[in-house]
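input
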Amino acid sequence: QVQLVESGGGLVQAGGSLRLACAASGLTFSNYGMGWFRQAPGKERQFVAAIFRTAVNTHADSVKGRFTISRDNAKNSVYLQMNSLKPEDTAVYYCAATSRWLTTDSSAYFYWGQGTQVTVSS
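output
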């Protein structure tokens, strides 16, 4: 059974930093692309960042230069370092896994975590 468990969310002031982590189990982690998505109240789920088997990665324009995705295959984990946080970054952040290459389409991600809340106060 595949499980993705996010951690690291919380309340932070604007300009602050948080580091999200996602621990995966039940899959051959190194074979999967891993992504972070977010969903704010009343809005659609939005792509944030993804990293693939050879550590190729991509970030949404809205977070480029502020957020960095990374992975540690030895720990079956993916991380999202979030710096210079803004109130508009407030959302539930989800970790997800895909077997497809270089996709930012949420429908291509087969496995999802339950999410972690990030709240940025102004």
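quick obs: The chain is about 0% helix and 50% strand.
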